[in-house]
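For the sake of clarity, the format in which proteins appear in this thesis is described at this point. Each number in the token line that follows is a code from a learned vocabulary of backbone shapes. One such record is shown here in full, so that the layout can be seen directly:
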Amino acid sequence: MFSLSRPMTCASLAAALVAWSATAPAQPAAADASVQIRRTSFGVPHIVAKDERGLGYGVGYAYAQDNLCLLANEVLTVNGERSRYFGATGKTLEQRDNLSSDLFFTWLNSRAAVGAFLHAQPAPVQALLAGYASGYNRALAERRRQGLPAECGTGEWVRPISSQDLVKLTRRLLAEGGVGQFVEALAGAQPPGAGSQLAAAGYAAALARQARFATERGSNAVAVGAQRSANGHGLLLANPHFPWMGGMRFYQMHLTIPGQLNVMGAALPGLPLINIGFNQHLAWTHTVDTSTHFTLYRLQLDPKDPTRYLLDGKSLPLARQTVSVAVKGEDGRLSQVQREVYSSQFGPVVQWPGRLDWDTHAAYSLRDANLDNTRVLQQWNQINRAESLAALRGSVEQLQGIPWVNTIAVDQAGRALYLNQSVVPYVDQQMLDSCSNPQAPGSLVVLDGSRSACQWKVDAQAAQPGIFPARLLPSLEREDYVQNSNDPAWLANPAQPLTGFSPLVSRSDQPLGMRGRFALQRLQGKARLGVDDLQRMVTDDEVYLASLVLPDLLQWCQGASADVQALCTSLANWDGKADLESGVGLVHFHNLLTALAEHPDSWRVAFDPADPQHTPRGLAVEQAAVRKRVHEAALASLQQVAESGMAPQVKWGQVQQAVDGTPVPGGPQALGVYNAMYSVPHGQGKRLVVSGTSYLQLVSFTDKGPEARGLLAFSQSSESASAHASDQTKAFAAKQLAVIPFTEAQIKADPQYREVVISEADKGAVAQH
């Protein structure tokens, strides 16, 4: 075992690793990774290697020590193999039936698509992927000998992985902002008269999931520059709101290649790169943007054949791809289920009965801009290595690999940057005017698929055909601050509004979200801001919407009938927060505002584009119609709370909890709770957190570099038996953000410090952990 008897610099550590690996038995160059993994408090790995393959080896190995079954389950999903092991009617974590999921992912991750993506990766990224797979497989072998975690069940579906599997996971992430929201619609699309479709009952659930996309994958971000930060250097708050389970669950880690790379933060499963984090020079984060990353095309079908469509008057056949999925029957035997996936030149045909119908006249094709984005891994690799804000910005503008998020960053010098530069179809207002269907359902962009003039525009300066070039996308660099909470680019800083973009990119005619208004209120003025100020934006758990309408509700209560006085008492006693000690008034407030949201005329002052930070506001309880709505909503809330099993004296921390029962602060983002949490009913009087504040990071730069604090709200490990399954969750509940050890001195001084060096050349011993 290699051990460190004294503190080592990165340079000396690299030399030691090189010397150590030189003493190992000779191996082919492609399989000669060596890596040091040092663990600190909460089980956070600090991974050091001499090259990318070794770094990936360490990431895959460490991740599999903490989340083996989670990744194995996701690999099963993206390979379209759930029905093989769990049957067609079983459910995925997203509550999709296995068969629909398998058909979709078998189509999405075809051998040709995966091969082309992998081939497009530069050598360093390919080495990271190959190393990750090898490291994961080593940990799998070790853990299988020790006994797999309970989360792996029988373990028959847990297998070694390859670089191709990691590409499939990446393509799944890319599709999240587009075709991934149409899984059932793609898997069930069949021409009229072709026989039974997949059960239509799942489409309502699919619509609900599409509506929840930004809710469950939201985020807050604030970058404070030299003019406003307390010490004149850059300051960043990263507060992504992502799922607490499954394939979008963050993992905290520190990656180092001495002399080349030193970056820390969090990454999504299967990625050997940091998605949100910091290095010696800058810190960055992301928020899910409001841009549109796909469009639909309404196909005019050939009257003679509903599997042909007319383009500029010419009849063209829909391409057919046979997708085959193995399905385990009730008797345990496997059978093959086949479907034809139809595609026009725009993309696959999708079908939602009653919404996007495929009849003898028309059908709908979906074109997802991110399916051609092979640059996403290279993008984050370059961000990880950026040594200046200019380098980060130049990378994003040139590669255009960011899929569906904004980028917010700050550097040591105190320059704050906002970029709404993701992969967006080049459809400008002129094209919308001439090609879009005004009767399109919901907010979907539906273009005319019968005219080639309605193809996405092509710009030679864009990174791929059919997307907006960087020069036509919003960007803002300032020395006071920039911020975003899943609003359009418009008011990243109200002093310099960003307007004039395609509606697919950003709009300036819609109300801000309540979290965005809360942030702008906290950031207004000229007072200097420190780390504690940004931390309190999250940990105060303030319900911003209460400041706008609670006084009006209490006024209504003064004249309300006796049948709602219990609710009025709870509102009067409520502290206006979503904290652990907050009362049931929070639940009633949420129920009331959810009901009133269906009636925009309930506001006393309507939204005014000239005053977006302060409108809409006030509840018009002086109007009889509004009083009636409030009364009806109050009665419904009282009934709902009683039926759920919540006692009148219950505290929020007794209601909203993690899977292990740890109380979780925070609340619904629609109420303006910056510490947004999305929870679902989970037993009598309980709610289970499924998404919300995930990786919480505060970075303050000084003359000596970054100082960071934060935590991973759901903890490092998804395995219930792990010592790191809930330790950070408990710290989050107590609002105790830990110092994030980044320097050698901080890492070595950590009370939980331990380390191990492993190599592909030494696969015999079970590594210490």
Remarks:
- Confidence is low (pLDDT under 50) at residues 1-29, 764-769.
- The two ends are 12 Å apart (CA to CA).
